[in-house]
Amino acid sequence: MMVSEEVAVSIGQGMLRVTLAYPSLTRRYRTSTPQLSVDGVDQLVEGWGTHTLAVAAGPHRIAVRLVPPRGEPFGQAEASAVVELGGQTAVDYRASRFHRRGRITIARTV
Predict the structure, then answer these.
(1) Which position among 10, 38, 86, 92 has the lowest Cβ density within 10 Å, counted as fewest Cβ atoms?
(2) Which residues fall within 8 angstroms of residue 25, CB to CB, at 6 or more apart?
C-alpha cells in the first residue's frame, strides 16, 4: 500500500486521512483504480492505500467509486464527515468482496 506524504495544514483547515482498501484475493480490485471525491471535486490519489488531504474545517461529503480498465464503475460509497479546525478525521473505505457497494467508516481523531 502506498502512504502519502505529510500535508501542511493552513489556518482554517483540518485534514482528512483517507484509507482505501479492498478484500484480499480479488483480482478485479487490483486492476481497478479508486476515485475519491470530496464535496464533488475529484481528488488526485495514486491508487490504494492511505492518503492525507488538507481541507477546510467543517462538514464534507466524501464519495469513492472504483474504475476498472474496462466496464462500468462499481463499489460506490458515500458518507458525510466533519473536519474540526486543526484536527484530523479518518475515513476508511472498504470495497465489498462481491463487487457491490463499498462501505465508508468515519472516525474523528485529534
Answers:
(1) 10
(2) none
Q: How far is the CA of 74 from the CAs of 35, 49, 53, in angstroms?
A: 10, 18, 23
Q: Report residue 28: phi and psi, to 5°.
A: -60, -35
Spell out the long-range contacts of 38-43 with Cβ–Cβ below 8 A and sequence spacing 24 or more: 38/62
Q: Check residue 11 and give its pLDDT.
A: 63
Q: Can you read off the three cell numbers belonging to residue 76?
A: 460506490
Q: Global pTM?
A: 0.83
pLDDT tens profile 59-84? 999 999 999 888 899 999 999 999 99
CATH top class, domain 2-109: mainly beta
Cα–Cα separations (whole angstroms), residue 8 to 33, 52, 55: 26, 10, 10
CA–CA gap between residue 59 and residue 82 (Å, rounded): 4
* C-alpha span between 81 and 89 (Å, rounded): 8
